[in-house]
């Protein structure tokens, strides 16, 4: 029953009236202490935010979506009776919505946001701090990570600095910046509550950062930054009882994943998933005992497809993959993400345990 009361919500704000657009600030991002003492003796985050918030913009989207229709319109007999030709497009309507985005490359005008913010977009407008409104072009999006990349042409842009999200720790200060409910730019604070969350996107490539910094509808695509004002994630979703507002469980796509997806989209306009050609399973205590491993860690290879990149590299059934390029492969989901987000054509090094011996194998990732 409790599970039924919970709903995962992407935090995009859909508006019936034209979107209420907030403002951003202006300045140059730079590492700064988490808190500083203001001239009046007040402990504050304001100096850091003055440098960071210019990179967070408000996004207004005009999108075309399918209009609600009677289910009978999907019945072929009904359609034939009323003279509706097979395959005829169903009625559509135009909706307005608002979200957030983060400028990550001022020179090229690149903005990271969420895919669901700009899905089916016919027109995308970006509002900056100085109240300029500029049109944006969608370069591409990725359903597997919920990341989209926009591009604008404007002078005087400021970009946020990427952090290495792999080094983010549970307990680190986190600051969420976005446009909740179309109110305008809003800042909330909290901590990183957990890392490595998955299961939010069906068949997705997930490694979400969880934070208790309040994230609400409209924050989608906004920035999650650390105490130095560096980007550690793109705010994406919230978990809330009964589809309500924030209860302190929000999720952000780690900046390392967002950056990898962006690089592929900018180069090719799309994201190609890497694969090895193997069937894998997480090592549990029973498997570890059967293999004589000291700990239940890594991913066991159950099958290797003939002619696959894995076979060409010498990977064998029974091998246990424990790391990719030095990054631990703690589960089958992690290994799938590591390979899936590796650029097709790149060569990765697999750290493998084979019959109690450590083996390093170089594999060329295929698409």
Automatic annotation (TrEMBL):
InterPro entries from the entry? PDZ (IPR001478), PDZ_sf (IPR036034), Peptidase_S1_PA (IPR009003), Peptidase_S1C (IPR001940)
Q: Can you tell me which family this protein belongs to? A: Belongs to the peptidase S1C family.
Q: Name one GO cellular component term.
A: periplasmic space
- Which BP terms from GO are recorded? protein quality control for misfolded or incompletely synthesized proteins
Tell me which positions the record assigns to the signal sequence.
1-34
Keyword Hydrolase applies: yes
Residue ranges that the Swiss-Prot or TrEMBL entry lists as coiled coil: none
Tell me a Gene Ontology molecular-function term this record carries: serine-type endopeptidase activity
* Name of the protein in question: Peptidase
Highest taxon in the source lineage: Bacteria
Q: Which CDD domains match?
A: cpPDZ1_DegP-like
Recite the UniProt keywords alphabetically: Hydrolase, Protease, Serine protease, Signal
Question: Residue ranges of the PDZ domain?
Answer: 265-356
């Amino acid at each position: 029953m409790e599970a039924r009361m919970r709903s995962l919500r992407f935090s995009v704000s859909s508006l019936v009236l034209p979107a209420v657009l907030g403002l951003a600030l202006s300045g140059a991002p730079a590492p700064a202490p988490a808190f500083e003492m203001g001239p009046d003796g007040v402990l504050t985050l304001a100096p850091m935010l003055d440098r960071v918030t210019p990179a967070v913009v408000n996004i207004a989207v005009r999108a075309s979506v399918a209009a609600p229709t009677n289910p009978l319109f999907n019945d072929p007999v009904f359609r034939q009776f009323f003279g509706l030709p097979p395959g005829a497009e169903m009625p559509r309507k135009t909706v307005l919505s608002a979200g957030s985005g983060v400028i990550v490359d001022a020179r090229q005008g690149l903005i990271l946001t969420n895919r669901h913010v700009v899905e089916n977009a016919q027109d995308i407008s970006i509002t900056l701090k100085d109240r300029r409104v500029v049109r944006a072009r969608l370069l591409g999006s990725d359903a597997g990570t919920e990341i989209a990349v926009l591009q604008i042409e404007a002078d005087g842009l400021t970009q946020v600095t990427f952090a290495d999200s792999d080094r983010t720790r549970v307990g680190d200060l986190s600051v969420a910046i976005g446009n909740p409910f179309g109110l305008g730019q809003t800042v909330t604070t909290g901590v990183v509550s957990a890392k490595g969350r998955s299961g939010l996107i069906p068949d997705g490539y997930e490694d979400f950062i969880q934070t208790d910094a309040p994230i609400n509808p409209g924050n989608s695509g906004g920035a999650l930054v650390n105490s130095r004002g560096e980007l550690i994630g793109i705010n994406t979703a919230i978990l809330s009882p009964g589809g309500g507002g924030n209860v302190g469980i929000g999720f952000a796509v780690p900046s390392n994943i967002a950056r990898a997806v962006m690089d592929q989209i900018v180069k090719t306009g799309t994201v190609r998933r890497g694969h090895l050609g193997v069937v894998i399973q997480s090592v549990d205590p029973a498997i570890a005992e059967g293999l004589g491993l000291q700990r239940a860690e890594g991913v066991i290879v159950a099958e290797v497809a003939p002619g696959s990149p894995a076979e060409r590299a010498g990977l064998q059934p029974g091998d246990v993959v424990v790391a990719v390029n030095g990054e631990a492969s703690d589960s089958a989901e992690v290994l799938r993400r590591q390979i899936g987000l590796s650029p097709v054509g790149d060569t990765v090094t697999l750290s493998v345990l084979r019959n109690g011996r450590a083996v390093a194998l170089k594999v060329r990732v295929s698409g």
